[in-house]
Structure formats: structure tokens, C-alpha cells
Amino acid sequence: MAVLDDVPGIEVAVQINGRDVIEYDDPDASNHVRSCPTSSKYIESIDDAEFTIRYKASLDYNWEGCRDHVLRFRAFADGLKLSGKVFSKTDALYGRCIHAEGFSKYDTETKSTYKYNCKFSPISTVDDSGRERVIEDSRVAKKLGLIEVEVYRSTHSGSREPEASRSPRLTATCLPRSPSRARPSLMESPIRWAELYRLRACPMWRFGTSKRMADLSLSFGFKSLKQELIIPRNPSVSHPYVLRMAFFGEAEQLQQAEELAQWRRQIESDRVEKKSRPVKREIGDVHDPHQDQAPTRPTKMSRLASGREAVVIDLTDD
Predict the structure, then answer these.
(1) Could you tell me the CA-to-CA distances from 276 to 247, 270, 279 in Å, in that order?
(2) Full-prediction pTM beyond 0.90?
(3) CA distance linking residue 219 with residue 27, whole number of Å
(4) Coil, strand, or helix at residue 274?
(5) Cα-atom radius of gyration of the chain, to the nearest Å?
(6) Which of 62, 119, 151, 164 could form a disulfide with 214 if both were Cys (CB 3.0 to 4.6 A apart)?
(7) 220-274 pLDDT, tens per residue?
(8) Which residues, 6+ apart, have CB-to-CB distance to 122 below 8 Å?
(9) Is residue 272 part of a domain?
(10) How many angstroms separate the CA atoms of 141 and 129, rounded?
(11) What distance in Å separates the CA atoms of residue 192 and residue 80, rounded to the nearest whole number?
């Protein structure tokens, strides 16, 4: 929601499916120097999603600064003028919001007005193009991905009949890829116009004195937000902490603990197996379980490979 501290009470927001889109601060906002208060924001766009522009002016706005005046909103998308909206003090008293859904075109032959809605859509590019095409597309690209809103303080001076407006652009613009362009990271989502329905012509208000109150610009394009580092992200951790996490991360600690537990289980298993290992007995050795004490067994003698018993000589014997 774009607001101005210098002109409190005026709100402008882009909505998709009735919800305000997320906005981010423009790092180059200080470069947009104009004669009136200005607000510049970045927004995220969704391909093939229809959007509207929401206008609102609360009682915090100075309605008493000029007698019987209204606020007039003029919006431009991709350089094309959208339908203007008028907001009065009565709307502010009832807390109303006004939405701009696109623009209208009056046809003098059918005496009817055709309305077009706005939709985000990606642009297509071509690899090669002539010099004139590059110059023309560079001029058009300056307004692509840009929604501009101008706010005027005006007074009524009568009414007028609707007039024929400029024919809308119905085809998507194809931008060439040229190394001579200074900023290749253009906004990736221009406006798509779609004819919805036909309206009857009706008289329109004519405004007398007008004063430009504020300008609000909203740039959109998800890829451009990433390239411009507008979308916030988690702060980077310090380099030493990264090294510690690389060597002693949670996965490594779990693996080491599992290996240690397995090693301990192996040692315990070896001990149990050693204790329960049965004593070897000779083939002819017979033991009576009813006796209180088992008979003494002769000392086992070592044998050579030939089967003969090894003779042990005690060298300490005198």
C-alpha cells in the first residue's frame, strides 16, 4: 500500500483477487525527483493474473483545504492511460474504496463504451532485430512493468459528452535482445488487455481548476525483484560459523553418534559372546553331572604338525 507522509490519508494499492500485493521499498526512490510528493515501490506480479488498483482517501486527508473539491486519480500501466476515478469527501465519510479495473474505449459508430481489464503477462524476446526496432522497443520498454498513479485536487465545472479515445494496444510487445541496452533486467510482466463487456455511454464530469497533489509509482516483475535484491532474505551468517556448520553440522553429528553407538554395541556383543563360549572337551572325556565336583582334567599338551606331542624342557631346573 503506497502512502505519502506529506499528503496523509491517501492510499493506493494494487490488488490481485481482492488482496493487496506485497510491496518493497525502491532503492532508487531518491532519484525520482518531481515537483510534488512522490512514492515509489516494487511489487510482485503473477503471470496471467488480473489485477485492479485500489484508491482510498480517509478523513485524515485535509478535505477543508479547498472548498467543495474532490480527488481525481489518473493511472497509467505500461504507458497506457487507465480509466480515471474520482473520490469525494462523502466516500471518505463512509469508508469507501474505489477500484480501477482497466480502461474504457468509446466507439462513435456503435455509440457504446467497451471496457478492458488489466492482466499481468510475461513478454517475449527476439534475438535479432533492426536498428529502428531496437530504438522503438527501447522507448516502449521504459514504461513496461510500471504502474503510475497521479492524484489531483479538482473542482467540478459541469459535464461533457464522452469522446472517442485512443485505440488500445491488444498485442504483446516483443523486445529484442541487444547488447547495447544499458539495463537488460527489464520488468518481465507487462499488462495484457482483454475485452470484457460493453457499457452504455453516459455524460462525464468536466473539471475546472486542478492541482497535482502526489505521484505514486509501482514497478512490478518477480525476476527483476531478485536481480535488484529487493526481496528480503535471511541475513547471511558469518564465515567462521559457516565453517563450523560445514564440519560439525547436525547431519554429521547424528552420523557420528550412530557410528559410536554401533561401535559400543559391537564391543558389548563381543564380551557376551566371549563369556558364554563353551569349554572344549576331549572326545573321550566323560563327566557325571551327579558328582559334586567335576574330575580334574589333565593339562592340554601342544602338538606338532605331525601329531606328536611337543616336549617342553624347563631350563630353570638344576
Answers:
(1) 42, 10, 9
(2) no
(3) 12
(4) helix
(5) 42
(6) 151
(7) 554 444 444 444 444 444 333 333 344 445 666 677 778 888 888 888 877 766 6
(8) 47, 188, 189
(9) no
(10) 15
(11) 11
CA distance 4 to 49: 27
> Does 299 fall in a domain?
no
The grid coordinates of residue 104 equal 474504457
> β-pairing, 98-100 with 50-57?
antiparallel
Tell me the C-alpha to C-alpha distance, in Å, between residue 126 and each of 88, 95, 129, 185.
47, 48, 7, 15
Would you call 314 helix, strand, or coil by DSSP? coil
Distance CA 110, CA 108 (A): 6
User: At CA 167, angle to CA 163 and CA 169, rounded to 5?
Assistant: 150
Q: Residue 46's closest CA among 143, 120, 102?
A: 120
Q: Which amino acid is at 223?
A: K
Exposure of 228 by Cβ count < 10 A (0-12 exposed, 13-18 middle, 19+ buried)?
middle
Range of 113's domain? Answer: 2-227
Residue 283, domain member (yes or no): no
Does 273 reside within a domain?
Answer: no
Q: How far is CA 74 from CA 54, 151, 167, 173, in A?
A: 12, 6, 18, 23
Question: How close are the terminal C-alpha atoms of the chain, in Å?
Answer: 111
Q: Reduced to 3 states, what is the DSSP secondary structure of residue 250?
A: helix
- Pairwise CA distance, residues 169 & 192, whole Å: 9
Q: Provide the domain count of the chain.
A: 1
DSSP symbols for 121-151 = ---EEES---HHHHHHHHHHHTTTTEEEEEE
